[in-house]
Specification:
Order of helices and strands: EEEEHHE
Number of strands: 5
Strand content: 25-35%
Distance between the termini: 16 Å
Number of domains: 1
InterPro entries: DUF6540 (IPR046670)
Largest sheet: 5 strands, antiparallel
Strand order of the largest sheet: 3-2-1-4-5
Mean pLDDT: 82
Shape: globular
Helix content: 10-25%
Radius of gyration: 15 Å
Length: 113
């Protein structure tokens, strides 16, 4: 079975977080099963942008060969806005998303539209 792959945003402060959303059981009432990878909290529905598709049998491969290889950003700033690791460039969720997408397409796990 072929699943749609999207990028999506969730509300964050001071900027929204971005994640990968895989629609594993589409339904009209939006209650279908999904995989949401990355940082998430309150989902912003109009932010969904389809980036490709994935075969059902490649879901496990995606997790093992991409998600576990490209870990999401760790905490980098305190609640007061002070950088925890000032000598290391910030690696935001958008950077993570770009790296995950590139790797998934390069490995042929995600199929382009």
């Amino acid at each position: 079975m072929l699943f749609k792959v999207y990028t999506t945003e969730s509300i964050g402060a001071p900027r929204n977080h971005i994640a990968i959303y895989i629609e594993t059981a589409p339904s009209e009432d939006a209650g279908g099963s999904t995989m949401l990878l990355g940082q998430s909290s309150t989902y912003v529905p109009p932010s969904m942008k389809q980036i490709g598709t994935i075969e059902e049998e490649d879901l496990d491969k995606f997790i093992k060969e991409v998600c576990l290889v490209v870990p999401p950003p760790r905490a980098q700033v305190t609640l007061r806005g002070t950088r925890l690791y000032p000598d290391i460039p910030l690696y935001r969720c958008g950077d993570w998303l770009k790296d995950v997408q590139e790797m998934a397409f390069q490995k042929g796990i995600f199929n382009p539209l």
